Amino acid sequence: MAQDTQIICPEIDVCREVSPSLIKHVLIPFDESEISYHAFEFALDLAKKYHAKLSVITVMHSNILASSFLQVSSHQKIIERQRVSELDHLFKIIESIAKRFGVQTYTDTILSDNVSDSIVAFCSQQKVNLIVMGTRSRQSPKRFLIGSVAIDVLQKASCPIVFVK
Q1: Quick one: angle between helices 115-126 and 148-156, nearest 10?
Q2: Dihedral (C-alpha) 69, 71, 74, 75: value to the nearest 10 degrees?
Q3: Which strands form 161-164's sheet, in the order they lie side by side?
Q4: What does the angle CA 154 – CA 90 – CA 75 come to, to the nearest 5 degrees?
Q5: CA 78 to CA 138: how far, in whole Å?
Q6: Along the chain (165 residues), what's the average pLDDT of each consecutive run of 10 residues?
Q7: CA dist., res. 98 & res. 105, Å (int)
Q8: Cα 116 to chain center, whole Å?
Q9: HSE (CB half, 13 Å, CA atoms) of 161?
């Protein structure tokens, strides 16, 4: 079987190989948790095998968007700018790793007051074929098997999702 093909089974006993692969664009919602690093590793491997492009995004919850710009303190604006700068540095590292393996990569930080809706909108706008994401964020309690963002994306996304634990 060639690397750029996909096996599809329209019925359980009727499977065939199609070319090219159905996986052309993989998205990783990245939140710097240990789980999201594992998801990046898994998605990078898939993107390399399927010759797909890879998008790594962080959706940063922003209080600025939820309120009047005049009500937000300058301190909050500085914190968000610093956070975006830190993420840009991390994304440069991610891009260099992906480049080393020959995977075309796009990274971005999205400011939003709704994380899951932003992920789903990105998928729709950028024609993502597969989402690879962690089961919960670094803020989620360990007692939860799957986080609220993961559940919300699962319910709203139109493409397949691979959850990494």
Answers
A1: 40
A2: -120
A3: 105-112, 53-61, 25-29, 130-134, 161-164
A4: 90
A5: 23
A6: 70 82 91 92 94 94 58 63 87 96 95 92 96 76 68 94 92
A7: 7
A8: 11
A9: 21
Domains of the chain: 23-164 (3.40.50.620)
How far are the Cα atoms of 10, 24, 110 from residue 72, in angstroms, in the given order?
53, 40, 18
H or E, element range at 148: helix 148-156
Question: For residue 48, what is the DSSP state?
Answer: H
Smallest CA-to-CA distance from 61 within 5, 129, 1, 139 is with: 139
Strand partners, 60: 111
